[in-house]
Amino acid sequence: MSVMLETRGLTVRYEHHIACDNLSFALEEGDYVAIVGENGSGKSTLVKTLVGLLKPSAGEVILHNLSKKEIGYLPQSTPVQRDFPATVSEVVLTGCIGGGGFLPFYSKGQKQAAQNAMELMNISPLSKKSFRELSGGQKQRVLLARALCATKKLLILDEPASVLDPVITHDLYSILKMLNETRGITILMVSHDIHCAVEQAKTILHMDKELLYYGTPEGYFQTELYQRMVGLCHADYSREHTHSHGHELHPEEKEENGHAD
After folding, report:
1. For the chain, what are the domain ranges?
2. What is the DSSP letter of 68?
3. Tens of pLDDT along 59-101?
4. Residue 259 DSSP code
5. Edge-to-edge strand list for the sheet holding 71-74
6. What percent of the chain is helix, strand and coil (3-state, nearest 5)?
7. How far is CA 166 from CA 68, 117, 203, 241, in A?
8. Judging by DSSP bridges, how do beta strands 58-63 and 3-14 pair with one another?
9. What fold characterizes domain 1-66+153-164+180-231+249-261?
10. What predicted TM-score, i.e. pTM, was given to this entire model?
């Protein structure tokens, strides 16, 4: 597989606070990467930098045969986002223009792309409904359809299940797995749910401002990082399906030197 995005020495600061420190990794086409780590470890800062919402203080983000406009982005849910005063179809259509607002009219191709995305997410019957009247699970499907309008290549998601109940969360993760396995869409997802992360993803990226691990879930199970995240004395979580690609970075001493939030 070919590399579609990589970071080299990526560092992001908020004034004197370092949020991401010297991160270097390569995202391969077709991968499904779960970004994990404790609160305050820089996960959301990383994805915001990857999509261009934040500027690096040092280092760089390199896109290979991919433009920022081709990246579908689903940010963390906010009260403003949940109460957006528009219909479902209007919200989805904004993904065709990178979320920059509404247009007085859309092209035939844009309308078809929005319709295809709504059909894929099984929300076509909701197209005329007000977004603010939907359930949490329905809203996430709408926002995911909106993100899909922007890309056929890469989806970056920041805690997509943070406002959902367990049943709807399982449904959402099933959709993401389908998009990755049958549509070939590369996925990079921030998650606090370590069990879902290792069950769903092909690759785990564990960070605490710096990169502590980047490799397969199977290798991750053997680290103290995993044991600490699940609160166990040893890694005994197993997956039904195995994956072999990926590589490890800093899986020994740095695992024990996490930063406080």
Report:
1. 1-66+153-164+180-231+249-261, 78-152
2. G
3. 999 999 898 888 999 888 755 455 667 899 999 998 887 544 4
4. P
5. 71-74, 154-158, 186-190, 32-36, 203-208, 210-215
6. 40, 25, 40
7. 32, 24, 23, 21
8. antiparallel
9. Rossmann fold (3.40.50)
10. 0.80
